[in-house]
Amino acid sequence: MIRFLLRTLGLLSLAAAFVFFVYDGTKSIAANALVFTKISDFWTLINAASLQQLRPLIEGHAPPWLWDPVAVTILDAPAFAGFAIVGAILMLLGQRKKPLIGYSR
Predict the structure, then answer these.
(1) By CB distance 3.0 to 4.6 Å, which of 41, 50, 70, 91 could disulfide with 10?
(2) What is the pLDDT of residues 51-60, one digit of tens each?
(3) CA–CA separation, 90 vs 24, rounded Å?
(4) 13 phi and psi, to 5 degrees?
(5) Residue ranges of the domains in the chain?
């Protein structure tokens, strides 16, 4: 059940990565320049208030270096790359166990 859920979420995340890749590609072709949607821009479109609450939450409960170099870098990454990485990790976690060869159970 959990593997099915992980694989389903992984496939949805990979589909979102493909959609963002095509969307950014068409914008780049139209603009004659490299254009990509950042994760922070996408998060702002979905729910801007939660993005504003993220910084005090991380700075209050985690080491201070976690916000500036780590979280800011992740939020400035292209959305298609973020969704692709999350999707690949979820697909690997939901992978079926391979049967052992030569062992009887």
Answers:
(1) 91
(2) 889 888 888 8
(3) 24
(4) -70, -40
(5) 1-36+79-96, 38-77
Query: What is the pTM for the complete model shown?
Result: 0.82
pLDDT in tens, 84-105: 999 999 999 998 887 777 766 5
- Compute CA 77 distance to the chain's CA centroid, rounded to the nearest angstrom: 9
Would you say the C-alpha torsion 85, 87, 92, 93 has a positive or negative sign?
positive
DSSP string, 8-55: HHHHHHHHHHHHHHHHHHHHHHHHTS----BHHHHHHHHHHHHHHHHH
> In this structure, how many other beta carbons lie within 10 angstroms of the beta carbon of residue 6?
17
What is the number of other CB atoms lying within 10 angstroms of the CB of residue 80?
A: 21
- Rounded Cα–Cα distance for residues 26 and 45 (Å): 20
- Cα torsion for 27, 32, 34, 35, to the nearest 10°? -30
